[in-house]
Design brief:
Order of helices and strands: EHEHEHEHEHHEHEEHEHEHEEHEHEEHE
Number of domains: 3
Distance between the termini: 20 Å
Strand content: 15-25%
Radius of gyration: 26 Å
Number of helices: 13
CATH superfamily of the largest domain: NAD(P)-binding Rossmann-like Domain
Largest sheet: 7 strands, parallel
Bound molecules: 1,4-dihydronicotinamide adenine dinucleotide
CATH architecture of the largest domain: 3-Layer(aba) Sandwich
Amino acid sequence: MTTPAETSFPKSQIRVLLLENVHTSAHEVFRAEGFQVEACTGALGEDALVEKARDVHILGIRSRSRVTERVLSQARRVLTLGTFCIGTNQVALESASQRGVPVFNAPFSSTRSVAELVIAEVIALSRRLADRSREMHEGRWRKSAPAAHEVRGKTLGIVGYGHIGTQVGILAEAVGMQVLFHDVVPKLPIGNNRRAESLEDVLGRADFVTLHVPETPLTRGLIGERELARMRPGAYLLNLSRGSVVDLGALAKALGSGHLAGAAADVFPVEPAGNSDGFATELRGVPNVILTPHVGGSTEEAQEAIGREVATALVKFVNTGATTGSVNFPHIEPPPLVDRHRLLNVHRNVPGVLSSINKIVSDAQANVESQILATNPAIGYLVMDLNREVSEEVRLQMSALETNIRTRVLY
Ligand code: NAI
């Protein structure tokens, strides 16, 4: 007689492939689980990735690898995929969900890093620090107080009051600023932050306007000539969100005419692919403009947190089926699995699918302890805890359904 396995799949045989120098904090999370980790420093082209990903169970990338439909179609063992950054547009997300592969990212590990840089830049702009520092490097001593100001008592306008916007609001109050925000969805104001009537309201009342919106069709060109003209004379604009949000030509004009007193840009409509490429922008050489190469979230703390956050989500999915936070899957946070087998079923979300599944369960006389279903328009995700005697039979029958995408047993 064979002894039943302790876990549905030996942890030591779970293979993780991490590309693009994912932080070692992620390796530690996977190794603590007993998984095998292979790490590569760079991104891989499509052919190389197809080869490398063929036998892995967990694939981790950052922003430069492209996980295409072809890569996914060949990576038949991949259970889940992690982008160790915020963006996920480098992954064929729809194809991943159609294959039952949830994708996880790191939506807030770099939030605080961005927020701190915003506050640093608000103060730096207010004191014209970039210009003073450049002059000193050029051997010029220009001690002067005019046009240098404290930020205490000034108004900071935040456009996009999400993860980063709210953190900026907290830090700004700590240095004595008044905070006014605008968001397209109603948001609870943090501390003494106040909600503005509209974007125009923020533009007309703030001494500093900082943008923290995502890139969407609505935010493309959100700040152009008209909006800049509405800003207060002598105000400052900061963009650490996405390059497409601001019309840089219009911003350069508003700075050149003296309508705005300064600006900070960390993101640009077109950014170089690598550090050895050149860079051009309308803002080069404009006084009191701080230019940074998309480093808002680039701190060691953020990289470490991203490694841990994404790896933890991937491990949790593999061990429990939890999809909370996934960007392409319905969210389920199942309870701990005790003394049961758990079926994880991903199916096409079409009429009648549940009755077929329920018939299989009922015919098998399964003793179902809990059943959680979440759906999106394309797929349904069902997590069912049931008695161990019938789990394999139920899995086989569910896998044979025409609507089945993937069915796995966990114990
Ligand atoms: P989030 O999703 O938590 O917040 C975005 C907020 O903007 C949401 O509250 C949303 O309702 C609001 N919003 C959407 N459209 C809007 C509109 N038209 N007008 C006003 N509000 C609108 O995002 P999070 O994490 O705060 O990130 C914000 C931006 O920062 C993103 O574009 C992200 O890509 C960027 N980012 C930049 C980094 C850098 O290195 N510079 C690092 C991390 C994020």
